[in-house]
Specification:
The complex is a heterodimer of chains A (about 160) and B (about 190). Helices cover about 75% and strands about 0% of the residues of chain A. Chain A is mainly alpha-helical and about 160 residues long. The longest helix of chain A has about 35 residues. Chain B is about 35% helix and about 25% strand. Classes of the chains: A mainly alpha (about 160), B alpha+beta (about 190). Strand 1 of chain A pairs parallel with strand 2 of chain B.
């Protein structure tokens, strides 16, 4: 994908402009002096590439939306707190971002939980009465995690 | 340590409930991800990864002013981000320009979002034929210092402080719109 310069960002260079250096340094200099110039064949190729890229982007966006929907259905936190709550955010942040320092055991446990979560969600939807105690337990954990993450970030 | 204890607690409760439900529920315990064009295009190493960035625009001002757009970024289970760059062309292999572009994206992502980005990435090449074959090529990205030096060299070229090199490949010269102005040895 082309990364074009945008106004408002002073002296910023785009990734695609730097990439031209890997193609031909003379071309970089010529384009700087004379502006961009394309042969007909290259122009045609660029238009074709743009269409293909739009499709690639569309597929990516669809896949990410499907993933988000699947996660929402399979996330205990989303089910009991709702998607926009801070508890859900903290718990997901921990699950997704804090796995780095947990080692093999921690990663294994999180993986086990990820596998079990769809079944837990199914059970919580079937027996809504269970949601209240789970909400309380997860709420306490979210408070602890928020405190711990805040303390850790403060120490950085 | 606290985090680990908390995780253990959650997992213990989750495992107990899951076991209970698995025994009584008709719903499948594990659900496969649905097939999709995006999933088909992934290299095998990214099958377990989570797609988190699509067409993400990044801007950093330090150590250099840089704008980059990430085609796709996947988060591995380890937390590391792997970048992919899409290209549509007949020649089904990665070029140096692709590597430079991915390396610049890495620089921007690390600078703006403080994420750990893998030292490798993928160039997904789709041929414009009717069959539209798509191949993901793994490439090693350039070290940060080399990227910064390259950006500096570009500035020097634009300022006329350095003489730019010719393209290494004659194929690039054959399709260049500046053939009339250029004295490349590849040109007749």
């Amino acid at each position: 994908m082309n990364n074009s310069s945008e106004p408002g960002v002073e002296r910023a260079v785009s990734a695609s402009e730097i990439a031209q250096m890997g193609r031909c340094e003379r071309l970089v200099a010529f384009e700087h002096l004379h502006g961009k110039r394309r042969t007909k064949g290259r122009q045609h190729g660029l238009q074709r590439g743009l269409l293909a890229h739009e499709q690639f982007e569309r597929e990516g966006l669809e896949a990410r939306a499907a993933d988000a929907e699947r996660q929402a259905r399979h996330s205990v936190a989303t089910l009991v707190f709702g998607e926009a709550s801070w508890q859900t955010r903290v718990l997901h942040q921990f699950r997704q971002g804090e796995t780095i320092g947990l080692g093999l055991w921690g990663l294994g446990l999180i993986r086990l939980y990820s596998h079990a979560a769809p079944a837990i969600c199914a059970g919580l939807r079937r027996w809504p009465v269970l949601q209240k105690p789970v909400r309380s337990a997860l709420g306490a954990i979210a408070i602890g995690l928020r405190w711990w993450m805040g303390r850790r970030d403060g120490n950085r | 340590m606290i985090a680990l204890a908390l995780t253990l607690g959650v997992v213990a409760v989750a495992a107990l409930v899951a076991l209970m439900i698995a025994l009584r529920s008709r719903e499948p315990m594990f659900e496969d991800r649905p097939a999709s064009a995006e999933r088909d295009s992934r290299p095998e190493a990214l099958l377990d990864a989570e797609l988190i960035y699509v067409e993400k625009v990044l801007r950093v001002s330090r150590p250099v002013g840089l704008i980059a757009r990430i085609d796709r970024g996947y988060r591995m289970r380890s937390g590391v981000i792997v970048l992919t760059e899409f290209k549509s062309r007949w020649i089904n292999r990665p070029f140096l320009a692709d590597v430079v572009q991915l390396s610049a994206q890495k620089l921007a992502l690390e600078g703006q979002l403080r994420q750990r980005v893998a030292q490798y990435g993928y160039v997904v090449v789709k041929t414009p034929s009717k069959a539209g074959h798509q191949t993901a090529h793994r490439v090693e990205l350039m070290p940060r210092a080399d990227m910064l030096a390259l950006i500096k060299r570009r500035e020097d070229i634009l300022a006329g402080r350095v003489v730019p090199h010719y393209a290494e490949s004659p194929a690039i010269c054959r399709t260049c719109a500046f053939r009339a102005e250029c004295d490349s040895p590849h040109l007749p």
